[in-house]
Amino acid sequence: MKFIKNIKNYILNSFNNNTAMIIYSIIIAILMWFVISITIYPTTPKTLSNIPLEIDITGTSAEENDLSVISASAKNVTVTIKGERSRIGSLTADDLVAKAVIENVNSAGEKSLNINVTGKDSDVKFEVTEIKPSKVDVMFDRIDTREYDLTVNAPNITAADGLYMDKSEFKVNPSVIEITGPSKQLDSIDKAQVYVDTKQEINTAYTFHSKDVVLYDKNESKINTDNLTFNSEDFTIDIPVYMQKELDFTYDIRYAPANFDVSSLNIELNVDKISLASPNDELQNIDTWSIGSIPLYDLDWDFNKSFTIEVPSNYKNLSNVSTVTAKLNQEGLAKKTVTVNDISIINAPSNYDCTVNTYGLTFDIIGPEDDIAEITEKDILVSVDLLKYTVQSSNFTADATISFPKYDKVWAVGLQKVSVTATPTTKNSTE
Length: 431
Known about the structure:
By secondary structure, the chain is mainly beta. The protein contains 7 helices and 34 strands. It has 5 domains: 2-40; 43-141, Beta Complex (RNA Polymerase Alpha Subunit, Chain A, domain 2); 144-240, YbbR-like domain (RNA Polymerase Alpha Subunit, Chain A, domain 2), CATH 2.170.120.40; 243-328, YbbR-like domain (RNA Polymerase Alpha Subunit, Chain A, domain 2, Beta Complex); 333-430, RNA Polymerase Alpha Subunit, Chain A, domain 2 (Beta Complex). The longest helix is centred in the first third of the chain and has 23 residues, at 18-40.
């Protein structure tokens, strides 16, 4: 009782103190304002910001149509609510839930959806007076997975001097990539490339690694890869390097007499050289490239023949020359027809008597004008070598060999054949 009496006396005495009077007045005013606010203004507005916007398609028509949310124009909302001061006064953004209203979303595309805001505690009642933004634009699409062939883009990789590199032969592993994402975005992909940003000059085959995949549409514009996922993120790029060399074309003359001067032939080629590349140094010791063989007897006055150029599968034909045409240059040459009656047989089998039935073998000869003018039948040797024949019948046809002992720049046109009769000798008959 004494303690209470002391407090009472202290308060009564404080009324005689001006400072104490001021403090009591402020406290009384606050209490009166609070009582009046509760009594006269029981409800009040309140604005809350940065409320996360939920877009949940579970159980909606969008889910039933295999659609997914690709993007949204807003991630958070600001809401103004009104309610009893005592109930909403302590609410924060964490106490509210903002959801997009998904109704009748049956097809892919951008949809404008309403937004609904509620409280997490159902006992707290309030009225939503404003939501900013009031709607959200949501892009819906189906999620697909598709395969695309990969190519390589390595613009800063070059070959050292004297070497060749074909960028179309750059190989990437894996060579196919699976891309998962919105079907509309996948539809726009025309080309998928692995990009190598390294700047380097190489003098041998080289392997690079990259994780950079770039997608392009039909207009060669880059495609944004947001919302897309790749099944691989590490790629190996193999770059082959070739040795390159320019080679003179050459040809072989076959079936020429032993004394024939092959270098005297003037055969013109429409293409003189070819540029080749090999994956090794095989070309280092090669100076010419043969187009093939030409039988001497095929060289007629109007000789004109095309040869197909063939290179090994691991070589590159940098000249893109597929055929070469060979033509006989007639300048300084002459042609005439001759007839030879004296035809000899050599290397005949000992158990047969062989004779030539052909009489008067007629054929054309070509050579320098002076030689052709003076040459006669006596200057021409025609023989039949039976060493390469197996004599089994009494009559057969054999190839004739024609040579010009005193003229090393003259040749006979055409493959000449003669008829031969083989008669068994007495010794052969006895056996």
